[in-house]
Structure formats: C-alpha cells, structure tokens
C-alpha cells in the first residue's frame, strides 16, 4: 500500500549536477498544502518533479553554462515521516555554450516571506554561471533579465497528480510551519556573484 502525504508535510527537492568534476547540489523547500491528503506519495512527488522541471529545471538550464550537467532532481518527504526519495533523471547540460565560472562561484536568487528573521529570508545558489555573464564580479546588467522567469517560478506552487495537490515554496523547513506566513512571496536575482567554499574541486563529492 502506498504511503500518503498529509497536509503540512515538509518536502525537500534537490537539483544535483556536476561542474568541473565537482558535485553541485541546490536545495529547494516545499510545504504540502493540498486540499486533502495525497493518497499516493510516490505518484504525487513524481508529478511534482515533472512540474518542477517545467517551471524551474528548464529555466535553470537556460541560464547555465554547457559545462554544467544537470544529472537528476530528487524529492523527499522529510516530515512528519521521512520516506525514501523519488528521483527524476535529467542528464542535460546547461543551454549556454561556453565555459562556466569556477565551481565555487554561484548566482543567487533572494527569496522573502512575510515572517521576519534570517530563517525566513533565504538564498538559492545557482552553479554553472556562464563566464560571459560576469562583469566586475556581478551578473552583467544586460544578462539580469534572463533570470526573471526563473525567479518568478520559484514563487509558484507546484502540483501533484491532482490540481488540488499543491506544493507551496517555503524558505526553511525548520520549526513549526505557518503556511500563510512561511510561503515565499517574492524572489529576485541578487546581481552580486557569491562564493561557496564547499564547492572546491577535489573536496567532497
């Protein structure tokens, strides 16, 4: 019998890729806010991942260097019960031909909620920034609008099998959730390129 996903469940989505021999892992958080319990958790997450690829995965690759490989995306219920992750193979390169900036350098999408505090104001770090997008350690002004659709779609709920099976984007999965306050309200590009020390060639995965 399949497991169910009750209202209020916390879901972690990970975009896993490889750049310059280094594993990249970009994490998104969602809260299941469906009108009713999703009766088949695996089916619901599989449908959610398909919607995620359409809304976010495609747009992410549209602003990524061809040196970055998007290997797979996973979704996992982590609370109130942790279940095995559901994996969607992708195996596609970024759409922008040419070199990427070093693997430790990332573009950043800033997200905000109605709640105050650092936990509720988050960043998504995007690997594989095309070298042609950089200008004085920022995303070049002419390239910034290319991130608009990606940022806008980070605010959009994803759907499971049924239209009523909504997965709402949140910044953090820590602590008690208040859907009306924890929902991501806005997402915008931070033009300053950031450095992620954990993405060092030869260190980790």
Short account of what is shown:
The chain has helices at residues 41-62, 148-153, 179-182, and strands spanning 10-19, 22-32, 69-79, 86-93, 105-112, 121-126, 134-135, 138-139, 158-159, 166-170, 186-195.
Describe the structure.
With 205 residues, the protein is of the alpha+beta class. The protein has one domain. It is 16% helix and 37% strand. The protein is built from three helices and eleven strands. Strands 4-3-1-2-10-9 form a six-stranded antiparallel beta sheet, with helices on one face. A three-stranded antiparallel beta sheet has the order 6-5-11. It is globular, with a radius of gyration of 17 Å. The model has no long low-confidence stretch (mean pLDDT 93).
Report low-confidence residues grouped into runs of 5 or more.
none
Radius of gyration: 17 Å
SSE run: EEHEEEEEEHEEHE
Coarse morphology: globular
**Strand elements, count:** 11
Main sheet: which strands, in order across? Answer: 4-3-1-2-10-9
How many structural domains are formed by the residues? Answer: 1
The number of helices is 3
Proportion of strand residues? 35-45%
Mean pLDDT: 93
Question: Cα distance, first to last residue?
Answer: 35 Å
Q: Please give the oligomerization state of what you see.
A: single chain
Structural class: alpha+beta
Largest sheet: 6 strands, antiparallel
How much helix is in the residues? Answer: 10-25%
